[in-house]
Amino acid sequence: MELVRKISSPNETVASPLDIGSINYRGYVKVPDQSPEYLSPANATLIDQVVSVQTIQAHVNLLIRFTKRLEQNDSTLLLGYLLRAEQRYILWLNLLDELKPKPESIPIPPLDVSVFWSAHMTNPSTYQEDLIRMYGEHMMSYDFPLIRMDSEIDTESVTIWQEYSKEPYLLEYKDDRPFLIRCPFCMKDNLIEQEKFIQLKMKLGNHQCSRCEIKLDSDILSSKRMLNDIENYLKDERKCLAGTLLNDRTNKVDYRHAKEENRLLFDQDIIREIIRLSSTTYTGKPSPPSLYIPNIQDNCNWKVIREEIIRVLYKLDSQSELSSLRKDIHDRVISSYEHLITPFSLDLIGTVLRYKDAVCKILMNGEDWDEEDVLNRSTTRYQKFLSLKRKHPDKGLIPTVDILNCWFIHMLHPIQYQTFTLSLVGKILNHEGPLDEKKMVEKFAKTCLLWYKNYNEPYSSDNPSKEWKKRKSRIVMSVVFPVYGLFVAQKLWKLSKTHDKKMGNGSTI
Ligand SMILES: [Zn+2]
Hints:
This is 1162_t:CDS:1. This protein is mostly helical. The protein is built from 20 helices and 8 strands. The two termini are 31 Å apart.
């Protein structure tokens, strides 16, 4: 029997044509009836001491537990659970910071906390900036205890967590205790019902502080958070603001440059004035409240902050100091605070939901995760992916699910991951953020072609030309220039060699 596949060398006998509109290009080829090398049993590779068959197995088991825990059709219940888990994640980081357990024997975190911790880690630069800014360098030494998560929970971990956090170890969906918000003006801890807290977080509601009576919504809470951070910076120049710490070239924290930018942006009379107008030393219930409350609410919001920062930029421009700032630095700072009421510089709930989608893809497309060969091959393919990244550091390569799984595991070891990717490509490698469909299709096609060019084997079991053709078909139909038609034909023929369905579900995107 002869197999007909869209792989192998173009010099071999052509069996059937690839039909593209009016253009026929002979892209199908006959190949001998034997498995090519990329389908034969693979040996496992150990990458950076952390990506191995053992860690892949432990990671897949963990991801299965994550998806089971996050299976919830009632969106209010799911959001309530995630908001509570986010607060518990902050408690977890506080625990590591205060108790300073040995990195190799940290307690096992509760499952909901683990979801947030690993999702945060899949944004390596932001994770690094957040942890160093909020706690200090020492927090980077904590790896996610992947292998230990795969065994029975020890009672010691449960006790340490419960004693420190005063929280149950297992977070239940039916947990409807009120949430706590500390008023950033009078520092009063306010209790707020779950439903109201969800509305506040979704920018749909507010809560009036029971002491100073200021209406707290996500606008005023997040803008006050930024102003408080500026105030802290003005007292101590090492406390730079979120969004300013990362070096553009390396994605690594760079205090020297950050201090200079913070000084230029925030050590300004204009900024001191908004801080003054947005704060009060609480001395008791104001009488009448209208004497100062409107004053704070009129000054502590994003509209005012944006306007005042623009004024600072104009001032710097007039003093010829604007060139010392990165062009988008003010936007970066604002996006690290705007409508974010937790101390993190990204929307962690959104990050967890995207992480959940990626996890589902890994599990749904990889029902053969318990096959030794799939596990072995994914380690070698991840190594090849990293080599490709080294050759093309500026190309946004799209990982297949088996590669993504290994990539996530690598990121769960922050210091090792940083050191490895810094030496690989000169910067901390970040996983691409969410892409729109068009960009995704283009980048996937490019990744397939690069892979084939470098390794002379298909990249994925998904067919990149199917999507690519769909996107381009309207253009192809209207095209009159044969040169463009030829370009499309060549592109499709090249893409046809970059995939093979026989590669199995693990290699889908
Ligand atoms: Zn208050």
